[in-house]
Each structure stands twice: as C-alpha cells, then as structure tokens.
Amino acid sequence: MDRSAEFRRWKAQCLSKADLSLKGSVDEDVAEIVQLLNGQEQFFTTSSCSGRIILIDGSINGFEVQKQNCRWLLVTHKPCTKDDVIVALRNANGDAVLKFEPLVLHVQCRQLQDAQILHSVAIDSGFRNSGITVGKRGKTMLAVRSTHGLEVPLSHEGKLMVTEDYIDFLLKIANQKMEENRKRIERFYSCLQHALERQSIIRSYPKEKVNKKINAYSPKKKRNQEKARDRCIAEENDKELENNDSPGISAAVFPEDDEDLVLTCLW
C-alpha cells in the first residue's frame, strides 16, 4: 500500500472512532481548528484539549501528580472562581493540586513537509514547545504545546495548607493564563488559515507561475504593510512569551510503539 493510501486509511479509522475523552466531545474553543484541519486531505487530529483549570485529589510522587490514581474534583475550560475551588476542596481527602493546562493538540500529517508548515504556524502563534515526531512506519505527528502552565498543591491528606486569599490569588493567575491561551488559539486559527491558503495557491500552479501568482495576490503596498504587521506581531509575541516560555532545542530517540523508533525535535 502506498503512503497516501495508508494515510487515508489511518485518517478514516481515527475519525470514525468514538470520542473517549471524559467530556465526550471537542472543546468549543478549539472546535474550529479541529474542523479546519480534518477538512484538509493532509491532516487529521488525534486528540485535543483547548486548555483547562483542574483540581485533582490524589498522591504526589516527587511533585508529579499521578492522574491515573486520582479523583477529578473540578475541571473547567472557562475562567474559574474561588468559590468553585473552595466547594470542590471539601471533597478532598488526599493531596489536592490546582493546575492550569494550556492547549494540547495532536495532529497526524501526511508528510514531513506538511508537519513543518503546521509547526511554523504553532510557533508563530505562541505555542513554542511544539514538536514533530516521525515514526518508522511513516506516521508523522505534530504536537502543539506551550509551557505557560500552573501547578500548585493546596492540601495534604485532606488538610488545606493555604489560605482562601492565596487560592483567590492563584485563580487570578490561572484565569490570566487561560485568557492568554485563548488569544494564542485565535492566532493559531488565523495563521493556519493563511498558511493553508498560501499552500493552495502553490499547489494549484506550476512552479514557474507560483511566484507570479503570489505577487499578484495583493498590491505591493499591501504586501509591505503585511510584512510590517507580521514583524510587529512577532515582536509582540516574543515579548509576551519571554517570561512564560523557555524554548529549547532537543532531540531524542525512543520507542513509539513496540515496533517503532521515533525522532522528536522541539524548537
């Protein structure tokens, strides 16, 4: 089976499966992105979360919350109030942890160059911890991620270890991060639309006509304005992310399944 046919088979199988998430459906804030990607022949999404504030009751092993052996006391994809957390904490009898988790989006791509285009969109939108994974069987995955999360323990063995004022302070920070996450999602959707339109133009014309078509797409003055705007947006994004994200460069080889070795690159 050729690669394109195999990719189409994978896509059909994935999109025909039931949503096994706790919610059972795609989050509202990321639904347009998921729909846009799944409507393209070169992409399909395998999982997504638009970002959430959660309160987990469980045990902490060295500062890492084990989600498999814990209870979810509270989960919301919208801003949260102190009263919501206080009420949920009444049901805690272990080590309760308040967390904010930003957008996570996993997309399988037909070819590496498709993943690279999507990776550039993610980076330009503020998701600077995004990475590409390539498997031996030809599976190319893009993970859209950022690092502006939050994780704070609130109780130990059912006993509240912080004041209500501190919980209120933490929620202000978490809600600010939620708002920043929403803005990045909007930027991602806008950048993705632009990238797909440009790729459509490139695929529709012979190589010798591509540059001419792109140049005719808008007047020179408009192109210069767009370049200046893009530079301003990039500079603004860098300032916003300077204190939140710490992008690095790393590569690691590890098993994807029992049969695959994968190379993951994070920019």
From TrEMBL:
Q: Which pathway does the UniProt entry assign to this protein?
A: tRNA modification; wybutosine-tRNA(Phe) biosynthesis
Spell out the InterPro entries in the cross-references: tRNA_yW-synthesising, tRNA_yW-synthesising-like_sf
Keywords from the UniProt entry:
Methyltransferase, S-adenosyl-L-methionine, Transferase, tRNA processing
- As recorded in UniProt, its EC number(s) are 2.1.1.282
Signal peptide residue numbers: none
Q: Which reaction does it catalyse?
A: 4-demethyl-7-[(3S)-3-amino-3-carboxypropyl]wyosine(37) in tRNA(Phe) + S-adenosyl-L-methionine = 7-[(3S)-3-amino-3-carboxypropyl]wyosine(37) in tRNA(Phe) + S-adenosyl-L-homocysteine + H(+)
Q: Which residues form the tRNA wybutosine-synthesizing protein domain?
A: 10-193
Annotated GO biological processes are: methylation; tRNA processing
**Top-level taxonomic group:** Eukaryota
MF-aspect GO terms: methyltransferase activity
Name the Pfam families on file. Answer: TYW3
Q: Record's family?
A: Belongs to the TYW3 family.
Q: What does this protein do?
A: Probable S-adenosyl-L-methionine-dependent methyltransferase that acts as a component of the wybutosine biosynthesis pathway. Wybutosine is a hyper modified guanosine with a tricyclic base found at the 3'-position adjacent to the anticodon of eukaryotic phenylalanine tRNA.
Q: What is this protein called?
A: tRNA wybutosine-synthesizing protein 3 homolog
* Species for this entry: Phyllostomus discolor
